Request: fold
Amino acid sequence: MTTKPSKDLEVFENPQQQNDYVIKIDIPEFTCLCPKTGQPDFATIKLEYIPDQSCIELKSLKLYVWAFREQGAFHEAVTNEILADLVGACSPRFMRVTSVFNVRGGIYTTVVAEHRADGWQPRQPVQL
Reply:
């Protein structure tokens, strides 16, 4: 196998640092293990962020997500861990991680975690 799971996140320079723009990434094949039963949990991770000086490199993100497959984690913990790791890697102006977990025991779980850089304020949307 040429690639392996890795928690190392790579970044590249934001080509439009002067602009507030949104990058949206959907990761529909996220898996981790239930820390109580050891059974797999499946989720779609939705990432939305406004980069500052750097952006997340997508192949490293894929390998990062892969690294959770054998990790036991509660939904709330894993969502906040992903947010902390991504913020640590790229220091965005704003980031939101939404984890939409598949049904388990008749219960759907969605966890939303956010980060705002100190002093950053969103621009008001233009209504046309």
